[in-house]
Amino acid sequence: MVSAKKTRALTLRDVSEASGVSEMTVSRVLRNRGDVSAATREKVLTAAKTLGYVPNRIAGGLASQRVNLVAVVIPSLANLVFPDVLTGISAELDDTGLQPVIGVTHYSPAREEAVLYDMLSWRPSGVILAGLEHSAASRAMLESAAVPVVEIMDTDGEGIDTVVGISHREAGRMMAAEIIAAGYRRIGFLGTHMPEDHRAKKRLAGFEEALSEAGMALEAREFYQGGSSLAKGRELTQRLLSRAPELDFLYYSNDMIGAGGLLYCLEQGYDIPGRLGLAGFNGVDLLDGLPVRLATTDARRFDVGRRAARIVAGKETRPEDGRLSLSPHFIPGGTIRARRA
C-alpha cells in the first residue's frame, strides 16, 4: 500500500536535534562556513542525509513559499522513450503557471541523489521522477519534500507518494502470451545487462513466468552494455542466430535494438514472420519508417506523463491507494504471425 507523504518540510532544528549540535553549527556546516571540527561536520552531514534534509536556496523573503517549478527527473535525454513523457507533462502544465525543470541522472543512483538535492533546494511545487528504485538518501529526501511526488513509468513496487505507469511484469507476460498464441516455440531474448535497468528486468521476469506456465523456457539470451542503437541490434541478432539458428522468435528489450535486428534479418533473407518472428518494446515513432513494422508494446508514455502532471498540478485527485496503473497495448505490426485458432 502506498501511503500519503509527510506535509511538513524538515528544518534546521530537525537536523540539530538529530545530530546533537546547535542550529547555528548545523547552518555553518551546510553552508560550508565557519570553523567546525571534522567530527562535528561528519555528524551533521550524516544526520542531514539520513533525514533527507535539503537546504532552502530561496531568498529570505520567499523562504516560506514554493516556486512555480516542477522538478522532472529522468535517466536520459538520448533515450527515445522520454521525449513523449516530457511532452505529456508539458501539455498538462501549460495552463497551470507551473514550469517543468528537467534533471538527468544517466541511470546512476549517485547522480540521482545529486540532482534531487539541487532541485529540491529550490523548493519546487512538485516532483516527477522515473522509476521506483532509489538510494536510501534519495528516498529520504523525497519522503521529506512535503510536496507531491509522482514516480512514473512503473507500478511494480512500493512508491513514496504516488506512482503512475504500467506494470512491466504484466507487459512481459502479455508479450509471451501473444508469441505462444501465434505458435512460436523456440524463443530467444536480447537486451541490456540489467543491474540498473529495473523495468527491463521486470518485463523479462514476467515474460519468463508466462513461458514457464506454458511449459516453455527461453532457449537463448544475448546481453549488451551501453546505449541502444540499430547497430547494436544488428550485432546482437547476428551473434544470437549464429549460436542458436533453430530459434523461431526473438524478443528484444526495446524497439531500438529490435529495429536493428529486423533490418539484419531482412537483409539475410529470413521469412518474417513465417520462419522467424520478432518483437520489441515501447512503440516508438522510429518503427513507422521500417520496411516491416516491428511488433511491440505501447508503454503509454505520453499518457503517463500527462496523468503524472495532472496529479502534481491538482487537476486530478491522487488515487486513494497512490497507484495509477495504465494498461499496456500490444501492437502486432508485421513481425508476428496471427494468433492460431
Report on this model:
The protein has 341 residues and is of the alpha/beta class. Helix content is 39%, strand content 16%. The chain is built from 11 helices and 12 strands. It has helices spanning 12-19, 23-30, 38-51, 82-93, 109-120, 136-143, 168-181, 198-213, 230-243, 255-267, 301-313, and strands at 69-74, 99-104, 126-130, 149-154, 162-166, 187-192, 220-224, 249-252, 277-279, 296-298, 323-325, 329-331. It has a 6-stranded parallel sheet with strand order 2-1-3-4-5-11. Strands 7-6-8-9 form a 4-stranded parallel sheet, covered by helices on one side. A two-stranded antiparallel ribbon has the order 10-12. Helix 7 crosses helix 8. The longest helix is centred in the middle third of the chain and has 16 residues, at 198-213. The radius of gyration is 23 Å and the shape is elongated. The two termini are 40 Å apart. The mean pLDDT is 89.
Which features would summarize this protein structure in a list?
341 residues, alpha/beta, six-stranded parallel β-sheet, four-stranded parallel β-sheet, 39% helix
